[in-house]
Amino acid sequence: MSHVKAGGTSKNTRDSPGQRLGVKLFGGQSVKNGQVIVRQTGSNKRGGKGTMVSRNYTIHATMDGIVQYTTRRVRLFSGKSVSRVEVTVV
Fold first, then answer.
1. Rounded-to-integer distance, Cα 61 and Cα 67, Å
2. Which domain holds residue 57?
3. Edge to edge, what strands does the sheet with 81-89 contain?
4. Cβ(61)–Cβ(48) below 8 Å
5. Which residue from 24, 54, 61, 83 could staple onto 31, CB 3.0 to 4.6 Å apart?
6. Any domain includes 17
7. E-strand spans in the chain?
8. What is the CATH number of the domain that holds 85?
9. How much is the average pLDDT of 11-32?
10. Amino acid 12: pLDDT
């Protein structure tokens, strides 16, 4: 005979670990070739000069230098113009 009352089953116990997204190097910081600057889902920030955007939209440095963030206007497929952050290495 059980000495503990029935607890029932829990259904909502699964959870995935965080993806560690975000800005890894901020403006003015030095960067080396191949280092990750931004990890993101989707192209929220655009890669500019001295950077490379990989398949999962991670922005890497392609040369040694200093990270800079600037805003610029980008035209969407629908024709709408929106501002986006551009990451460059100089």
1. 9
2. 22-89
3. 30-31, 65-75, 81-89, 45-47
4. no
5. 61
6. no
7. 22-23, 30-31, 36-39, 45-47, 51-53, 59-61, 65-75, 81-89
8. 2.40.50.100
9. 93
10. 82
